[in-house]
Amino acid sequence: MTDVIVVDEVTRTRTPDGVRYECRVSGLGPSHPLRFDVIAASHTPARSDDWVLLSLLMPAMQTGRDLRIDGRISPLFLYAARTDLQFALRRYDPSLSLVRIDADLCLDPAPPRNGVRIGTGFSAGIDSFAAIGSFRAAGLVPALAVTDVFTFNVGAMGGGRGANVMRAFRLMVARLDEFAALTGRTAHAVDSNLQLFYTPLRNLDFVRTHTMRNMAAASLFQAEIDHYLYASAYSYDEITIDSAATMANFDPILLPLIAPEGMRFHSANAGMNRIEKTRVVARDEIAHRMLDVCVAPAARRAEAISQRRNCSRCWKCYRTMVTLDALGELGSFARVFDVDHYHERTADILAAVKKKGTKGSVPDRAAHDCYVLAKSAAAAGLSVVQAVGGPGGGPDRPALND
């Protein structure tokens, strides 16, 4: 390997399913090209090659190799990538090194657009459903409404390109298409081999790098989407950058730094904690039959997605079921959770959630405390709303507009 990662032969090619973005990467390890396949009925190619820099900046910093891109990068993004973005990433992970970035500027003017298009990812999880309803909850629809939904295969479904990973992705795309049809939105999917460029490197697993990976895919829609809502996993109360456990801990800081020219990235609902978002999602009838929070391995995930059932055994299923039970809403989700198993093992499940909370998981601790508070209130004859707050607000937080 050399001291420089060289990216060249950056191309965009029309395919029967959409557009393929591809480039050759030398000096990083894998001999295959980096590839992103946009799967969409229609797609206007991005003006810049920001997807390349978003994809490879963290691997470059992890290896300490400068990055030379034979492509064109948005001016503000290139400036951030050479300065503030690297400083923020090093604050997040001190093992990363500062690197030089050489690339040309993309100075193409943005074409005129008719209307505002707003996109967000659709994983069918709590954060995802909450992001889709964020402007509706604030009373700003139809002036601001999510028009486009996305599913990206950039590592969330597991390492490599195995049969189980690809089956899970295809099932998620089918679910995306169904959701888009039900709600009158436009669906887009992106399949990438980006995971192969991260797997050999230490400390760059998906949870540590997901924002950079997902936004690399989102940036491909620079010429179509005005605002992209990235579903926040943490509230502002939990934002930290110093050696954070996950990249989600500083999304509101990171996202403005990595947006391409003509497109804005927003941290959706960072003002709400997970209990509040779960309460909002609990009123969504589509979520009652589509909610998917499961983090089981790829083979079990694929099976669960095909059956529209969460495994109801992983830590994330546990936390969500405990929260829904505390809110008095678990019965509404009987089609996607094994509610009988939950009721048979409630004490054990609650203990598992409490244990994860005591080890530092703020959402798990909040779920456990919410459950204890709700059950204590019920014993005293109080309602769930009186115990944990009205729609969109907790005991000490203002309610959102309905």
Give descriptors for this structure.
402 residues; Rossmann fold; ten-stranded mixed beta sheet; 3 domains; single chain; disordered C terminus
Structure description:
- With 402 residues, this protein is α/β, with parallel strands linked by helices.
- It has three domains: 4-105, no CATH class; 118-268, 3-Layer(aba) Sandwich (Rossmann fold), CATH 3.40.50; 291-380, no CATH class.
- The protein is built from 17 helices and ten strands.
- A ten-stranded mixed sheet has the order 5-4-1-2-3-8-7-6-9-10.
- A hairpin with a 7-residue loop joins strand 2 (18-26) and strand 3.
- Helix 1 runs antiparallel to helix 8 (206-218), helix 13 packs parallel to helix 16 (362-379) and helix 15 (346-358) packs across helix 16.
- The protein is globular, with a radius of gyration of 21 Å.
Give the topology:
Layout lengths: L3 E12 L2 E9 L7 E6 L10 H14 L2 E8 L1 H8 L1 H9 L8 E5 L12 E4 L4 H7 L1 H4 L10 E6 L9 H21 L2 E7 L2 H4 L7 H13 L8 E5 L19 H4 L9 E5 L5 H8 L3 H6 L7 H10 L7 H12 L12 H6 L1 H13 L3 H18 L4 H5 L14
Parallel strand pairs: 1-4, 4-5, 6-7, 6-9, 7-8, 9-10
Antiparallel strand pairs: 1-2, 2-3, 3-8
Helix pairs in contact: 1-8, 4-10, 6-12, 13-15, 13-16, 15-16
What is Rg?
A: 21 Å
Distance between the termini: 57 Å
- Average pLDDT number: 90
Oligomer state of the chains in this structure = single chain
What is the total number of structural domains?
3
Shape: globular
CATH topology of the largest domain: Rossmann fold
Main CATH class of the largest domain: Alpha Beta
Spatial strand order of the main sheet: 5-4-1-2-3-8-7-6-9-10
Most strands sheet:
10 strands, mixed
**What sequence of helices (H) and strands (E) makes up the elements?**
EEEHEHHEEHHEHEHHEHEHHHHHHHH
Give the % helix. Answer: 40-55%
Can you tell me the residue ranges where pLDDT is under 50 for at least 5 consecutive residues? 391-402
Beta content: 15-25%
Sheet/helix structural class: alpha/beta
Number of strands: 10
Question: Architecture of the largest domain, according to CATH?
Answer: 3-Layer(aba) Sandwich
Number of helices: 17
